[in-house]
Amino acid sequence: MRSVIDILDLSTDELEDLINVALDIIDHPDKYADACRRKKLATLFFEPSTRTRMSFEAAMYELGGNVISMTDGATSSASKGESVADTAKIVSCYADIIAMRHPKEGAALVAAQNASVPVINAGDGGHCHPTQTLADLLTIRRELGRFSDLTVGLCGDLKFGRTVHSLIGAMSRYPGVKFVLISPDELRLPDYVKNDILDRCGIPYTETASLDDPMPELDVLYMTRVQRERFFNEEDYVRLKDSYVLTPEKLARARQDMRVLHPLPRVNEISVAVDRDPRAAYFRQAANGKYMRMALILMLLGIEVR
Ligand code: CP
User: Fold this and answer.
1) Does residue 306 fall inside a structural domain?
2) How many domains would you assign to the chain?
3) Residue 259 falls in the annotated catalytic set
4) Are 244 and 260 in contact (CB under 8 A)?
């Protein structure tokens, strides 16, 4: 029995296998229509979500399985004081696999340590969001055809943006990858990500507050929302929330084969006028998430489809 809490829980070969299964699902969806018959996925979401929860649920339905769902901690027994550990033990009695989102860093790990079925981290506080990274990787593969020799600009809230932390972990494994970390001073990438991943792996990176300067050299621009829910005060959020707004004028400096990704939801950081640009890949990225979650569910349930 195996859980996925961090993207580093998956080897590079396993990432490749997941991508290949996802691509096969896209090409041959009927082959997979009964793969999870009589299996149940529990989605436990203690924080709001549109894409992650609904794509997990759509994924399980498209695999022929069923879903039981908790969409709000306030309506569960967590509101009476039940611990994450006990919740995980109980839900293991009702479901074959759990996808959990929680505002506290480490909550998914606690769930995995106490569950008797696989647990997938669907986002734990400002820590990580491995299945978003799976969506990001499939998008990069489908849009650019490779992971190596890419310059990846990460822009916005690099401090609290858990998707950024997971993406750095995954992309650091590929040769020739460079990062440009674009953020206001207050929202710089945490030292633990710099030290434990970038420095330890010898990955080149630069830090800047400018979105314009690095634009022409980027292969991928990964925009992020300033994470209002993680701020300690509203004043700081209001001051920083519009630090970067990608517009068609700013995008004019980018290469024609560059791709713009965003985990979504977007607030103000990408103008809607950018949506019409073929380089805007963020809606395709959200669609890719479902296929990678299908592939991950199959892997963790040990189901092979031929
Ligand atoms: N990208 C992402 O996690 O979106 P949701 O918060 O809507 O799940």
Assistant:
1) no
2) 2
3) no
4) no
